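Regression test attached.
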Amino acid sequence: SAVISQKPSRDICQRGTSLTIQCQVDSQVTMMFWYRQQPGQSLTLIATANQGSEATYESGFVIDKFPISRPNLTFSTLTVSNMSPEDSSIYLCSVGRGTGVRVTDTQYFGPGTRLTVL
Amino acid sequence: GDSVTQMEGPVTLSEEAFLTINCTYTATGYPSLFWYVQYPGEGLQLLLKATKADDKGSNKGFEATYRKETTSFHLEKGSVQVSDSAVYFCALNGRVSGGSNYKLTFGKGTLLTVNP
């Protein structure tokens, strides 16, 4: 498995501001992922963050709203920009093992960042 | 695309009762299947996994068998405890259409409450 930490663990923000969430892993990993979990809902993949390349975004998510950085193999950030109350969610990062994502790979999740936008 | 359908909740049981949470999936190819658990106020933890047909994943008294013929991965536990109260997510890791990567697709989650 992997030990994954996220900062902040929770935050309350004002509409129109931006928040950067950090994800730190205790070992080098190739694949890192960012998910959103809206209240009472399942997880939705926002983007895949590979070191040394641009993040790959899922349908419905754009770089201007959710810019991602991946400066090395143990760290990534997700920024939620120009926030509105609809962005209130739990944001989770996860990591996958191996040199690339394989069908048998397991994703391990961080504890999440609980964001409330007023 | 891939999809996961799991039993609607919430599910409320008494301690020591038998638990089944149904999960069925739609996917092309041969996905891997997972159950994750989310305890109140926490992130997701891997509960168990199975990577090929007829594999049985097990952990902490929970079991699930990968049934290709019925495209199912039902979660079972013979005797639940109050500490098992959590949200349970069924998920599959399947190939992204037209690509070489794989993507984790989740069900909607089932809230389990176990009463003493």
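Expected vs. actual: identical. Chain B has a mean pLDDT of 92.
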